[in-house]
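Researcher: Please predict.
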Amino acid sequence: MIGAWLVLAVAAAVAWGTADFLAGLAARRLPLLIVLFGVQAIGLAIVLPFWLAWSGDGTVPGMAVAAGFAMVAGLAALYRGLARGPVSVVAPVGALGGAVPVGIGVLTGENLAGEHLLGVLAGLVGLSLVTWERDRVAPRGQSTRTALAHGVAAALSLGLAVALLGVAGEGEPLGAVVAARVTAVLLLGAAVAGWLRRHRDRSLLRHCALAVAAAGVLDVAATVSFALAAERGPLGPSGLVASLYPASTVLLGVVVLGERLSVRRWAGIGLILAGVALLCGAG
C-alpha cells in the first residue's frame, strides 16, 4: 500500500515543477518583473492570513529579509532561463542549489555526509553531459551556454535563499517564509507600478494572468504538500522525492514546447536529478 507521505511528496514535486514551467512560459510574453511579482504576491496572499491567525507576533527575522533578496535574484535567473530555453538545461541545473547549504555547512565546520559528496559528483558529471554538445541556439535564441549560466545563477541564489531561511526560520519557519515573500513583493512592487503606468494596454496581462496565478498557487500548494509529507512520513525520503521536481519541468518542456533531447542529455538530466535527490534527501 502506498503511504500518504509518498503521495504528498510526489504531489509537491509535480506542483513545484509545473509552477516553474508556467512562470517561465508566462515570462516569454510578459516582462520578468511582472511574473516575479505576480507569483510572489499570490503566494503571500495565501500564506499571510495563516501566519497572522496562528503564529504572527509581528517580528521580522533579518535573515529572512536577506533571503527575500536572494530569492528574487534566483527566481529572476530561473524564469529568464526557462523563458528563453532550453528548459532541459535550465530546470535541472537550477535545482542544484541544494549544494549551497551543504557547502556553507562544510565551511562552518559540519561534516560532509557521503550522500552529499556523491550528490555533488553526480551533479557535476550530469552538468558536463547536459552541456557537452555543440552550442546550439534554442528556438528563442538562447544558446546552451547561456542557459547553463542562468541555471547556475538560479542555483546559487536560490541555494543561498534556502540557507538563509533555514537560519531565520529556527523557531518559526512560517514567519521566515512570510518575511521573505514580503521583502520580495516590496522589492518588486515599485518597479511593477512604474511599468503599469507606462503601459496602458492590459490585454497581455489578462492573457497571461491565469498562468501566473496558477504558478503562485502551485508554489504554495507544493510547499504545503511537502510539509505534510515530512510530518506524516520520514523527512529524508520525503525530501528526496520532492527534490525531483525538475523532472516535471523537463517533461512539460518536451510535451508542450516540443524540445528534443539527445540520449546524452537525458543521461545528464538523470544524473543531475540523482545528485539533487542525494543533496536534498540525505540526513
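Model: The radius of gyration is 18 Å.
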